[in-house]
Design brief:
Blueprint: H1 3-11, H2 16-36, H3 53-71, H4 73-90, H5 94-124, H6 145-178, E1 180-190, E2 195-200, E3 207-212, E4 224-229, E5 238-239, H7 247-278, E6 284-291, E7 296-300, E8 318-327, H8 383-401, H9 413-417, E9 425-430, E10 440-442, E11 446-450, H10 462-470, H11 473-481, H12 499-502, E12 507-508, E13 518-520, H13 524-547, H14 553-575, E14 577-581, E15 584-588, E16 592-596, E17 601-607, E18 610-615, E19 619-623, H15 632-649, E20 670-673, H16 676-692
Antiparallel strand pairs: 1-2, 1-4, 2-3, 4-5, 6-7, 6-9, 7-8, 8-11, 9-10, 10-11, 12-17, 13-14, 14-15, 15-16, 16-20, 17-18, 18-19
Helix pairs in contact: 1-5, 2-3, 2-5, 3-4, 3-7, 4-5, 6-7, 13-14, 13-16, 14-16
Biased composition (Acidic residues): 339-355
Region (Disordered): 331-381
Transmembrane segments: 18-35, 55-84, 96-115, 145-166, 248-266, 528-547, 553-571, 674-692
């Protein structure tokens, strides 16, 4: 699978943007159907507002469409078509027919494009075939107990919901059999709890019953309404025009049963595919695989993971979730003396070098420290030593941030002991390689059994992150951690944020030419969304407190909290800006303003179309979507290089000059409130005034 063929393979399937567009269209159609359905309930035709079994059935594909369009595109598109056909056939509401008809047509086109694209993908990978079994071990025949258990619970829930629906219908039929229609006058309208007080009878026999109502504003005091009165239980009386609707339980039961069926069918398909692929004879494709840290492997084209091959080089083909691994041969399970597999698959003998080249019995450990010659991790250190070690930890963080050393250098012994470093390696994909298909991933020593079909890989910066961390990761591990603390001092545990979890985001950039002042903002679309959110918080919060809380202090506090959250989210989008000058860096995140001297600046990394900045000691700030358009990645790279160039010109962020001398950290970083503080004060004043009013 070359990068060029990978590009053709990827473009055979419609982009996920089409799924997003269909989801937005579905939401618009749903809104149109609700807003335009203004017909009043009628005593002459109770079915207008009464239970509709057909709609209850078709409600399942209606609600499943947007979810499945994203998770299971074929099923989602099919659900959209099914509901559109049902809506046109059963619903006499023209605006809804038109809106969902258009969505259904779009889903039909999307479904055809997906199926034809998958056929094209199968043709592109229908080359050589596996001559024999993929492993000497017997094929796995186990069930996914989590999936099967979830399906079983859903089925039990569906049975319970269906039973409750049947019981509710039976109770309602008994009530209807003994009820009588009585005309009454509306005595009071409760538009908060959606209730009507209806006076029944004349003279001394006059009494009042309370009935639920769908639209209180459709009724006025004194108006005559027919009531279905239950003599045995007057408090269960209802309006003739609005019979109780219990079909929601039916929809829930059908939804649970459908979800259970999807899980069971997926598990049966997976097991059948694994059985068929295990014996050989299936198509195979050579790829590069890279673990993504979440139980899946990314499939990359051959020649692309190393950084060559054009614009498709670092774009993954897809993602395969891995259930478990099976050794290819019976001798691929070497263990060390303690019974645990060694890193290189060979038995460990006392005195023989381990993965990092250290013999623990008579030499330095993983971090190069011989604790017999220096303070151990639990020893008390004097103030000067502590400060020196803290400064070294800060310096190491900066080196990791600039990709000068591998990120695993930040880990201590315990972290490294259980670390599985993501390493790219060549692999063979056995099976029909297309989105939605099941494949086995065969590496040099093991067969990765899938937990699900091939899924689209997330675009963004993961592939650059993965490739940078994966290339020669074991070699980098050997180079960096063995000499990290060769003088025998214990490493002071630092708090380097995300680096201790999965490595720094994105990739470091080379310094570019110095071009004067560099200003980095965000896209116009993101800024417009931010302005809209700020206005929504400033205006919506006081308005909600003034007119919607009705003096309830808890509702007022909830509205104020929501308004503050919306306002701060908008401020981060609209007001984020970075200005790099010869004197230093000014970073405005909306909430805060940072003044960062260049000697305290660790560096800049690019992650997709966004940038990440870091400064002492371990502060990281994300600038998402600093630019847009078709060449957004290149322009984001240019901005990152310009900032790195300014930092390098100041002698801080490139080469040997970037290393902080032990005990000599850079100048202090100043932090002060950002422009969002003024907006927050305005909001608080507005909410207080609204509450007072």
């Amino acid at each position: 699978m070359t990068p060029e063929r990978a590009g053709e393979w990827r473009t055979a399937i419609p982009s996920r943007r089409w799924a997003v567009a269909l989801i937005v269209a579905w939401a618009a159609a749903f809104a149109v159907s609700v807003v335009t359905d203004t017909g009043p309930c009628s005593p002459a035709d109770p079915s207008v507002c009464g239970p509709d079994t057909g709609f209850a059935v078709f409600l399942v594909p209606l609600l499943a469409t947007p979810v499945l369009l994203w998770l299971r595109p074929v099923l989602g598109a099919a659900a959209g078509v099914v509901f559109a056909v049902g809506d046109v056939a059963l619903d006499d509401h023209l605006p809804a027919n038109v809106a969902f008809g258009l969505v259904g047509a779009g889903c039909a086109v999307h479904l055809w494009r997906i199926l034809s694209g998958r056929r094209r993908q199968r043709l592109l990978t229908a080359g050589d075939r596996v001559p024999g079994p993929v492993s000497e071990h017997a094929q796995p025949d186990s069930w996914d107990l989590v999936r099967v258990g979830a399906a079983g619970l859903l089925l039990l829930g569906a049975l319970g919901l269906a039973g409750w629906y049947a019981k509710s219908v039976a109770v309602e039929e008994d009530r209807l059999a003994r009820s009588v229609v009585v005309d009454g006058d509306v005595a009071a309208v409760d538009d908060v709890d959606y209730l009507l007080d209806v006076a029944l009878g004349d003279g001394g026999a006059r009494r009042t019953v309370t009935v639920p109502v769908l639209e209180p504003t459709d009724h006025t005091v004194g108006a005559s309404v027919p009531v279905l009165l239950d003599p045995a239980a007057p408090d269960r009386s209802t309006l003739v025009a609005e019979p109780p609707d219990h079909t929601g339980w039916l929809s829930a039961a059908l939804g649970a049963a459908t979800a259970a069926a999807l899980l069971l069918v997926a598990e049966v398909r997976r097991r059948r595919a694994v059985r068929e692929l295990w014996v050989g004879g299936a198509p195979r494709s050579e790829v590069v695989v890279l673990p993504d840290g979440s139980g899946s492997v990314m499939l990359l084209p051959v020649g692309g993971a190393g950084g060559s091959g054009g614009r498709h080089a670092l774009r993954p083909l897809g993602r395969v979730s891995v259930a478990f691994a099976v050794p290819r041969a019976s001798d691929d399970s070497a263990v060390d003396a303690g019974g645990e597999p060694d890193a290189d698959g060979e038995p460990d003998v006392d005195g023989e070098p381990d993965v990092d080249g250290a013999t623990y019995a008579d030499g330095p450990g993983v971090d190069g420290a011989t604790y017999a010659d220096g303070p151990g991790p639990d020893d008390e250190l004097d103030l000067e030593t502590t400060r020196r070690l803290e400064a070294e930890a800060v310096a190491l963080f900066g080196q990791v941030w600039r990709d000068e050393v591998h990120w695993t250098a930040m880990l201590d012994d315990d972290d490294l002991a259980g670390l599985e470093v993501p390493v790219e390696q060549s692999a063979t994909v056995v099976g029909s390689l297309h989105e939605g298909g099941y494949v086995l991933v065969v590496t040099e020593h093991e067969v990765l059994v899938p937990d699900g079909p091939v899924r689209p890989a997330t675009d963004g910066g993961w592939q650059e992150r993965g490739a940078a961390a994966g290339r020669g990761a074991l070699d980098a591990l050997r180079r960096t951690v063995t000499g990290a603390d060769a003088d025998g001092d214990a490493v002071v545990p630092a708090d380097p944020g995300s680096i201790r979890e999965e490595g720094p985001p994105g990739h470091a950039v080379a310094p570019g030419p110095v071009t004067g002042t560099v200003v980095v903002g965000t896209t116009q679309a993101r800024r417009a969304v931010g302005v809209a959110l700020v206005l929504a918080g400033l205006l919506g919060g006081p308005a909600w407190v003034r007119w919607m809380t009705e003096g309830d202090w808890f509702q007022a506090l909830s509205a104020a909290f929501a308004a503050v959250t919306v306002l701060l989210a908008g401020a981060r989008r609209a007001l984020t800006e970075v200005r790099g000058e010869s004197s230093g860096l000014t970073v405005v995140t909306g909430t805060w303003r940072y003044q960062v001297p260049w000697p305290s600046f660790h560096g800049v990394r690019r992650d997709g179309t966004g940038l990440w900045l870091a400064w002492e000691p371990f502060t990281e700030v994300e600038l998402p979507a600093v630019t847009g358009g078709t060449d957004a990645g290149r322009r984001a790279e240019d901005l990152a290089r310009a900032l790195a160039g300014l930092a390098a010109h100041a002698g801080r962020a490139a080469g040997a000059e970037a290393t902080v001398r032990p005990g000599h950290p850079g100048p202090a970083v100043r932090r002060e409130p950002g422009p969002a503080l003024a907006l927050l004060v305005l909001l608080v004043v507005g909410v207080a005034a609204a509450w007072w009013a």
